[in-house]
Structure formats: C-alpha cells, structure tokens
C-alpha cells in the first residue's frame, strides 16, 4: 500500500472514529439531561403536593406564586412561610417522593423565616425508612424548608446502563483502532526497511556477479579443453544467480512508485521477437503462439510485458510443461493474452495464493527443477497491476494451467 493511500486511510479512519465519539458524547449528554429533567420534574411535583397537603391541614390557600425554587442541581427550597409540624413534614416528603419511584436518600432542613437560620435537619433513607418517635416542636409562626439530594448525579448515571455499555464499546473500538494503527505503521516501517535492504543487497550483488560472468566467458575461451566444463559450470551458475538477483530486485522495485515507460509498439513484431527468444531458450516445438492481428499498435511498458510473459512461460516449463500455447487477441479496448500449458497444474486452493509474494506450492517447492524464491508470479501480478490490467488463473491438478491477462491501451 502506498504512503498516500495509508495517509488517506488514517485520515478517514480518524475522522470516522472522532465522529463516532462526538456522537456518543452528544447522546450520552442528551440521556443525562433527559434523566435530570425527569428527576427535577418528579421532585417538583412531589414538593408541590407536600405544600398542598400542608396548606390543606392548616386551612390556608395554596400560594399564588410557585413556592418551590431549585437553588442548585440537587437542592430545592420550599417557601411555605407557615408553621410546620416536623413529623407531618417528614411523612409527607417521604411519601410523595417515594411515590414517584425516587429511591435516593435525601436530607431536609427547616429554616426560620425571620433570620434564615436552620432550626432542624435530618436525613432520610427511602429504602429503609426509620419511624422516629420524637420530633421537636417548632414555636415560631413562619418557616420554610429545603430538600437536598446528595447522590443525585450518581443515581442518574446509574440508570444509563445502555449508554454505559455503548460508551465502553466505543472506547474498546477506539483502543483497538489505535493499536491496529500502531501495528500497521510499524509493519509498514519494517516492510520498508526490508525492501530497502533487499534492494541495496541485490544492487551490491550485481557488480560481483557481472565480474564473475565476464571472467567465466574469458575462461571458456582461454582455458584448455579439459577445464572448459568447469568454466561452463561457473558461467551457468553465475547466470542462474544473476536471474535470481534480477527477480528479487524487480519485485522490490515494483513495490515502490515505479515510473512506467509507456511507448507505442507494433505488437505483432514485439511478440514475435519475444517468442523467438523463448524458442531459443527452450525447445522450439514447446512454444506455440498466435495472434488475431498482423498490424496493431499498442501503448504498453515493453519491459513489464516482457517480464510478464517470461515469468509465466518460465514457470510453466519449470513445473513440467511439455507444450505452451500463447494466444493474443484484441477484445474491445483491451489486449487479451492467454497462456496455456500442460504442466502438473495445481489445486484451486493454491491457485488463489500463487500471486502472493514468496508463496510456493508445498508439494513441489523442494524439487530441484522447481527451486526459486516464489517471486515470479508475484512479479507478474504486480506488473499487470502497474499497467492497470487484470490477471486470472484456472488450473486442474495433472491437467495444466491457463493464465488470462487483460491490459488496456496505455
């Protein structure tokens, strides 16, 4: 994955996750506000009923102005401005609040209207109400009282089980996202280090291999006849090692932002040149090819297309093919290439994975004539992708394989 793609993925993921968190916070706040309004409304109704009962017992009318004032989030003042019987007051408050399914403990205090001093205070546990036998008698004529709920916030939050679950789930998703992002960036960094190392070491190997190749060619011309076979072995193994190095280097370069070199070529002549090389490289009768055109120009990266065909044919021969047929057609706006062989074939399971980097079929990877790094078809796949093409494979064990490639006009 390219750096720009990773940056776009990270930005979109962060925006999405931030949006989810903001939405979650918004709805949690809405839920808390809703519970707070319901709680306040229930308390207001309960205290209004208390005032109504006190007025009824004293024979007075209900105050024209609202006697209940919410001083803070959990403290309410009720201005009765009348005599108060403490036993009756505690009973009324407990009954009215309990009737509205409020189970939270509360505290209440009674104040003298003349000097605003508290003359009595107590706390009530609604779960286990204690019936007190003694209450002091208040002698003044005018009092008011206040009710305080010390654990109101805790009670409201305790009713948000669903939102607590979704918030915890959001946090878990955020943590997994952060961890996944960290792992992805670390893997990308390690992949870059590995790719740079492979690229550097293959570049360093190319020079001594070129020197060895030149030296082996010189030896073939200069040494006595009895030594020529050893010089030929050196030349053969050097060439094989050069091929491996080139494959590794090509695979490394294809992962980078490779600048393609598209050029318009006469496709029939270009293919004929490649096929003649194949016939020299392998047995002439092994390679058969045909094209449904004679004169057609196509814009391609000739190096990549050469690489694609070379790797597929080389793989076919390596895996037991005695005949390889290549058909080239123009289908609409695409160049279609079909490479079919009669090799050992493979199962559908392996066919899905053969384009993966370093993947080799376990049953044949240790055979002498099928040794390699598992890079050939990986290079094919990457090369086709670089030219915006598509590749697929169909294969049956014992019946060979068929590769189909479609490349648009570049």
Give an overview in words.
The protein is of the alpha+beta class and 410 residues long. Helix content is 53%, strand content 19%. The protein has nine helices and twelve strands. It has helices spanning 3-58, 86-99, 152-158, 161-222, 225-255, 267-281, 302-318, 348-351, 376-386, and strands at residues 68-72, 75-82, 106-112, 118-124, 143-148, 262-266, 287-291, 297-301, 324-331, 334-341, 390-395, 401-408. The protein has a five-stranded antiparallel sheet, with helices on one face. A hairpin with a 2-residue loop joins strand 1 (68-72) and strand 2. Helix 1 runs antiparallel to helix 4 and helix 4 packs antiparallel against helix 5. The longest helix is centred in the middle third of the chain and has 62 residues, at 161-222. The model has no long low-confidence stretch (mean pLDDT 83).
Q: Runs with pLDDT <50, length 5+?
A: none
Largest sheet: spatial strand order: 1-2-5-3-4
| Average residue pLDDT | 83
| Approximate helicity band | 40-55%
How many whole angstroms does the radius of gyration measure?
43 Å
Q: Total number of β-strand segments? A: 12
Order of helices and strands: HEEHEEEHHHEHEEHEEHHEE
Describe the sheet with the most strands: 5 strands, antiparallel
Gap between N and C termini? 22 Å
What structural class results from the helix and strand content?
A: alpha+beta
Strand content: 15-25%
The number of helical segments is 9
**Shape, per Cα inertia axes:** rod-shaped
Q: What are the main properties of this structure?
A:
410 residues; 5-stranded antiparallel sheet; alpha+beta; 5-stranded mixed sheet; 53% helix; rod-shaped; 19% strand
């Amino acid at each position: 994955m390219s750096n720009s793609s990773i940056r776009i993925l990270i930005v979109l993921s962060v925006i999405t996750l931030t949006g989810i968190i903001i939405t979650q916070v918004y709805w949690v706040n809405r839920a808390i506000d809703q519970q707070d309004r319901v709680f306040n409304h229930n308390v207001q109704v309960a205290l209004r009923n208390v005032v109504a009962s006190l007025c009824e017992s004293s024979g007075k009318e209900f105050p024209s102005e609202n006697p209940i004032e919410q001083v803070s989030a959990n403290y309410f003042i009720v201005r009765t401005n009348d005599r108060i019987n403490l036993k009756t007051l505690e009973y009324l408050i407990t009954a009215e609040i309990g009737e509205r399914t409020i189970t939270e403990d509360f505290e209440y205090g009674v104040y003298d209207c003349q000097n605003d001093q508290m003359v009595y205070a107590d706390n009530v546990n609604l779960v286990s109400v204690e019936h007190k036998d003694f209450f002091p008698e208040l002698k003044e004529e005018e009092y008011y009282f206040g009710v305080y709920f010390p654990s109101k916030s805790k009670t409201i939050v305790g009713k948000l089980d669903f939102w607590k679950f979704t918030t915890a789930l959001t946090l878990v998703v955020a943590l997994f996202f952060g961890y996944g992002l960290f792992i992805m960036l670390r893997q990308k960094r390690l992949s870059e280090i590995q790719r740079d190392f492979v690229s550097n070491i293959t570049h360093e190997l190319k020079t001594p291999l070129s020197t060895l190749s030149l030296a082996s060619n010189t030896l073939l011309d200069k040494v006595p006849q009895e030594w020529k076979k050893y010089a030929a072995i050196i030349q053969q193994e050097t060439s094989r090692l050069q091929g491996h190095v080139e494959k590794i280097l090509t695979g490394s370069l294809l992962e980078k932002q490779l600048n393609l070199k598209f050029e318009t070529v006469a496709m029939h002549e270009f293919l004929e040149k490649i096929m003649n090389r194949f016939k020299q490289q392998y047995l002439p009768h092994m390679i058969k090819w045909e094209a449904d055109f004679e004169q057609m120009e196509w814009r391609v990266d000739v190096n990549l297309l050469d690489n694609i065909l070379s790797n597929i044919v080389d793989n076919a021969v390596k895996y037991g093919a005695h005949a390889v047929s290549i058909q080239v057609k123009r289908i609409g706006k695409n160049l279609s290439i079909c490479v079919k062989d009669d090799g050992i074939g493979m199962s559908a399971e392996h066919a899905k994975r053969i384009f993966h980097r370093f993947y080799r079929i376990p049953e044949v990877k240790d055979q002498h004539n099928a040794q390699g790094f598992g890079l050939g078809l990986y290079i094919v796949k990457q090369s086709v992708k670089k030219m915006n093409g598509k590749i697929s494979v169909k294969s049956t064990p014992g019946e060979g394989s068929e590769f189909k490639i479609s490349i648009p006009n570049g």
